[in-house]
Amino acid sequence: MHHWLLLSAAVAVLVGMLLPLQALLNARVGALTHGALFASFLSFAVGTLALALVLVVTRTPLPSLRTFGALPPWLWLGGLIGALFVFCGTLLVPRLGAAGMICLVVAGQLAGSLLLDHFGVLSQPRPVDAMRLAGAALVAIGALLVVRPWQSA
What we know:
This protein is globular. It contains five helices and no strands. Helix 4 (77-119) packs across helix 5. It has helices at 3-32, 36-58, 65-69, 77-119, 130-147. By secondary structure, it is mainly α. The chain has one domain (20-64, 75-147).
């Protein structure tokens, strides 16, 4: 395996390890303030400020207003989906626990990714085959074993 691939995989795992912490922190902010919606807003505000600072420090050029205005409107869904993820994580962690929420999110991400790959949404199609379906089934089974919906809380 190429060293850049290993480094990329390690970074992905580390970032993935931070997501349940983000959800727990946001849930605590929501519990101590005005709920999940406010906590999600605060999380996005802090994140926006952090990214703005990185843009300034790295002197990353901004697109022209013409380029910005020419973007297809559906591309704005990325920000809405991010906000929905943060809000739902903030809302669901107290109900499902960090592990349960993340497992279910990963199962949903895998199902969505398989569909997007299969139909080639924004990339070359990568058809779903038996091995990929078996992997998705194992993830779904793993999520069920973590969440254990058959047990009462």
